[in-house]
Specification:
By secondary structure, the protein is α+β, with helices and mostly antiparallel strands. It contains eight helices and 19 strands. The longest helix has 22 residues, at about 85-105. The chain is elongated. The chain starts with a helix and ends with a strand.
């Protein structure tokens, strides 16, 4: 909270030598209204916003501003009987000063003021939509840090499973604004963000969306120097909801509906496989259904234990370039836990006996065989490529020096993004 507007007037009017136009401790509150503002975070934010707007109006040289503001403080603000009346008075005064400042200086826009307006929300959501289509949305992400054990213990009574903190400096009042990330854990890795007040306390522990929407994540993005919280898939490729700070609390600005697909090659070394995939020139191996897990040699292998596999198939291909085809097997099943998906494993088989020779073809410690992913095997110019497919991306691995190494990543972004406004006046 601050009394900066009053102090600004004191400096400008020369009534107090050495006074400074900045925040001051709440223990110095001069009257009942200032005590009320100190005890209400929303009122404190409104007071700071009014101070910032007042300063813009000063620079815009709004006529008779100092006397009008002094009269408003004495005749309106200090006579408000309760918090609701005071909040309304602040909002009305802020709106009046914004209008006066824009009239005095035509070049001013909504981004020159610390207010979340429908016009600003439309612009922000438009920028996020265009960035999503271009595949550059992650470049707006603000970097956070992992919480310490002590910090987790402090937040856990109010927020379930807090994991990270993102702190950004407010460009209007210079105060640090904190955002706390909570994570559900598990295979879905669902996360959500809550804003913190000036004392580092969670303002709202609700996710601000449908908590049953497994696999989504909240991200803090910076657009035109201001923070916004965007809900999207875990890769920040397809945003669905944008929220912003309004009077200190996160409010929905817009919903985003994505459609279509645009493939973009990222993290590229040798991008031949990704380019061929984009051009539709990669052809998968021809797989034939065959349940090799039922043989005596294989039923006790780890990949066949428990009868968990719903399907298996085999394909012949020259995997090592010696001119002799190897027999590759693929076993898989649908995974219903968490977010669901397809769990597949590639194995190398003996062509004569169908015995599993290698239970984790491509490397037991390789990403090829880690996680709940679908796999596909291609031949490109006679050499094998393995594609590991995630929800919105594919990693391509090629055989080099006897081991599969990641060559490139093909990410899928929306071709179209429709914006639906959610912020009312």
């Amino acid at each position: 909270m601050n009394r900066s507007i009053l102090l600004s007037l004191v400096v400008l009017l020369g009534l107090a030598a050495g006074a400074r136009a900045a925040s001051f401790p709440c223990e110095d509150a001069a009257n009942d209204v200032e005590v009320l503002v100190c005890g209400d975070y929303r009122l404190s934010v409104l007071d700071e916003q009014l101070d910032a707007v007042y300063r813009v109006a000063l620079k815009a040289k709004v006529p008779d501003l100092t006397e009008e503001q002094k009269d408003w403080l004495e005749q309106v603000r200090d006579r408000c009987p309760d918090a609701e009346g005071l909040a309304l008075a602040y909002r009305e005064r802020i709106a009046a000063l914004v209008k006066a400042a824009k009239t005095a200086r035509r070049k001013l826009s909504d981004f020159d003021f610390p207010l979340l307006t429908p016009g600003k929300a439309k612009t922000v959501c438009g920028i996020i939509a265009e960035r999503a289509k271009a595949g550059t949305l992650r470049s707006l992400e603000a970097q956070g840090r992992d919480l310490t054990q002590e910090e987790r213990a402090r937040f856990e009574p109010d927020v379930s499973s807090p994991t990270r903190m993102t702190t950004l400096r407010d460009r209007f009042n210079g105060r640090d604004q904190g955002f706390l990330t909570a994570n559900s854990g598990g295979s879905c890795n669902t996360s959500w963000i809550v804003a913190l007040d000036d004392r580092g306390r969670p303002l709202d522990t609700d996710q601000g969306g449908d908590p049953s929407d497994f696999g989504t994540a909240d991200f803090v993005l910076t657009v035109k120097g201001e923070p916004y919280v965007v809900r999207a898939d875990a890769g920040l490729r397809r945003p669905t909801l944008v929220r912003g700070l309004r009077e200190g609390a996160l409010a929905p600005l817009c919903g985003l509906e994505t459609s279509g697909d645009r493939g973009i090659v990222t993290k590229s070394g040798d991008d031949a496989a990704c380019r061929a995939a984009l051009a539709g020139k990669l052809r998968p191996l021809d797989w034939e259904p065959l349940d090799f897990c039922v043989t005596a040699e294989n039923r006790d292998k780890n990949v066949c234990k428990g009868g968990l596999w719903e399907r298996s198939a085999v394909a012949k291909a020259d995997l090592d370039g010696d001119g002799k085809p190897e027999l590759l097997g693929r076993v898989g099943r649908s995974w219903t836990g968490g977010c669901g998906g397809v769990l597949e494993t590639l194995v190398l088989l003996s062509p004569e006996t169908l015995e599993i020779i290698d239970e984790a073809y491509g490397g037991a410690d390789s990403p090829i065989n880690n996680g709940i992913t679908a796999k596909e095997v291609f031949l490109l110019d006679g050499a094998p490529r393995i594609a590991v497919r995630f929800d919105r991306s594919e990693e391509y691995y090629g055989l080099k020096d006897g081991a599969y190494q990641k060559e490139c990543v093909l990410e899928h972004f929306p071709a179209e993004v429709k914006v639906r406004s959610l912020l009312a006046d």
